[in-house]
Task: structure prediction
Amino acid sequence: MIFQNEVFLIALVGMGLVTLGFIYVIFQAGKPADTAEAAQAHKTSNLLRKWLFVALLVIFIGASYATLHRFPIPLQHEPLQASQVVNVIGHQWYWEMSATQVETGAPTEFRVTSADVNHDFAIYAPDGRIVVQTQAMPGFVNKILYTFDKPGTYKIRCLEYCGLGHDVMAADLTVVAATTGGHAS
Amino acid sequence: MSTLTLYPEDEKLPRNERNVFNLYLITVLVLFLLMMLLGLTMRMTQADWIGVPSRLFYQLLTMHGAGMVGTMSLATIAVMWFFLRKYVHLHLWAFLTNYVLFMLGALAIIGSIFIGGYAGLWTFLYPLPVHSMGVWSINAAALFMVGYLLIGVGLLVFYLDAAAAIIRKFGNLGRALGLQWLFRGEIDPSHPKAVVASTMVIIANGLGILAGAVVLVMSLINAYFPSDTLNALVAKNLIYWFGHMVINATIYMGVIAVYELIPRYTGRPYGISRVFLWSWAVSCVFVIVVFPHHLLMDYAEPRWMAIMGQIVSYGAGFPVFLVTAYGVLTNIYRSNIRWKMPSRFAVLAVFGWAAGIVPAILDGTIEINKVMHNTQWVPGHFHFYLILGVLPMVLALMYHVIGNRAQSSHDTVSSKIGLPAYLIGALIFTIAFLDAGHLSVPRRFAVHLPEWMATDRAGSIGAMLIILGMLVFATYIIIGLLRAPTGERPSNTAG
Result:
């Protein structure tokens, strides 16, 4: 399943659960409760809240561990030892890239910076979905390490508003099937 | 403690207070409608239903962003003022000063955009305001930033007056937050939730506004002395600290209306508790330090800040789900609640906040942010909690206030036409954004590819329904506000 689809599904399920909780209570809200029923409801709600707390805590710890134990951003101040390196400079409103072709199967390091304002270097796969991105900032180099697994024409788009030409700031990146283990530099 | 009386004596508004309060509410209703129309124009442009040149599109985007954040702020300041003044002595001049400076700031911003051509967005991300490639001038950018400074000064005047009033009554801000009861001691049941929430906002938003002031002044100096450059990453941190704080503060001010009004419509006390105090104390810290989740794609940011951004984003869900949402649901459960417009909006607001936080938390995850950042997922989640959360908080108070003034059928028309249109429209509008986000449609693009336009068209239809609902609300509320309260002379009016 495409990663974005999984995220969308999780969001819809989460929002759906919140909605169901509200709908249930709203349908109950118009009914009166006598003293004994109110006391029982109070007791039950306190118990439910404890369980809800435990459930949220488990999700909190589980999701944090699952998404952070291998930190998703490469180290920025050490050599990444990638066999393919592409230097990228964002300009208003075009991309300057040291290579426009890379190979699958071997990590590619993108060293991304900007010559003027903030941009965002986002790589779109041939299916139209983003695979990775980083900000292109004046005075800083942000390093992406990404291994392409499918050949094709990838599209580079700017995802940080950078002025009038923001939406036309695009470039192509060709990814070809591996031959020698990478040649971009 | 919040009252169970629908219209308590201490909420009555003397003539001057009423005039200023009405000024706030009528202004925000008109501004909301205008800004929504700009939003609709942009969605219809992306849908290719109308043609708006890119230059104008980005001007509208700048106006819509700055206008909505400012209007949300102005509206929720009115909510905070309306309830907080019952517990501490607020000066009307401070409330009015905020309004006047807001209007002056708004004029500067409108001038910079529509006369000066400024289109650097509400985030004024350094160095874009002074690097437009000749599209707008340095003076236009500076005027925009001066507008922000005016609005910020107005907010600080109001907050400082409120802080002084709270300190006079409770001794210090910590005691007003109820920190003395976090671990031990019998909690004073009369300690108002409005004071706790207001104190939290004063601390957190005060810091956010100061961060904004620092970066605005630095940017203004740079505009006229370009050799004095800024560190782009530091500037970005300050801008997002400010921006995140100002818009989030609107929820924490707006929710005061929920705390105050819900028990009046359920007839069930909504007492203060140690869990409640913990949640607000924790939220105060969380909301101040969570802003790095806006910089997760700035890989040069220190790693600990990115981790803090994610962890705190997750943690911020606890107080919302376990205290505010759960507390309101518990209060209304089998309460035989009176379903009127204020109670409907109050419950809707808490739903919007709780449901809207789900996609927000997901986007606060670094791994997910790598594919969702600056896609339409982002406007999807913040429009969700602004349209279905914060705005209903404000509307709840507005309808409550006119409830004892209007004798017309406003409740029926609003609930039978306005509310369904608004609710259905908001769901279509926001889910269209989220859908587009998961399809990787970028945010802030004036021109969209044909394959993206289905979500733009759905979003446009949703926006039309929202505006229809808002037109109904605004009409009835403005008529109601201009009426004298039922059975009272205009010179001695109730709120």
About this structure: The CA atoms of residues 18 and 24 of chain A lie 10 Å apart.
